[in-house]
């Protein structure tokens, strides 16, 4: 079991962390949730039937851990997100994550803020499909949905995200607009 666990950890740790980071938007909390995911993996690996890939199974566990985390912290999560300013907050690390580098780009920051305005189902699909680059089939397995529902939700989520981005541009104004 130790070698299987080690292999899973080495293969998917970054992807699971990245998914959770996009969900909770806090590095320390994402690290804590990753630990929780792997504790659940250790406890339940003997029940893994292989009906999906190990990666899909891990992401399914990570999704449940993230949702449980949101349920536990509903009140203070909103306050934290309202006061957290991505443009000024710097997480010090010797090797910055790709997400931290990308957040420096204003357009990506806008999209990231708009993603947070999307409802949970939309956010999950957008993160899994576009940030984690999972297939429709893998996304469906992780979410426990049909592929058709993933496609429909993805279409609607992109439409909503685009509307939020257009609204943000209208409100904030694009300083480069002519």
TrEMBL record:
Output the SUPFAM superfamilies linked to this UniProt entry.
Answer: Sigma2 domain of RNA polymerase sigma factors, Sigma3 and sigma4 domains of RNA polymerase sigma factors
List UniProt keywords, sorted A-Z.
Answer: DNA-binding, Sigma factor, Transcription, Transcription regulation
Q: Is Acyltransferase given among the entry's keywords?
A: no
List residues of the RNA polymerase sigma-70 region domain: 8-74, 121-162
Superkingdom of this entry's organism? Bacteria
Q: Which Pfam families match?
A: Sigma70_r2, Sigma70_r4
What family does the entry list?
A: Belongs to the sigma-70 factor family. ECF subfamily.
Show the PANTHER family listed in the entry. Answer: RNA POLYMERASE ECF-TYPE SIGMA FACTO, RNA POLYMERASE SIGMA FACTOR SIGV
Name of this protein? RNA polymerase sigma factor
Record organism: Sutcliffiella tianshenii
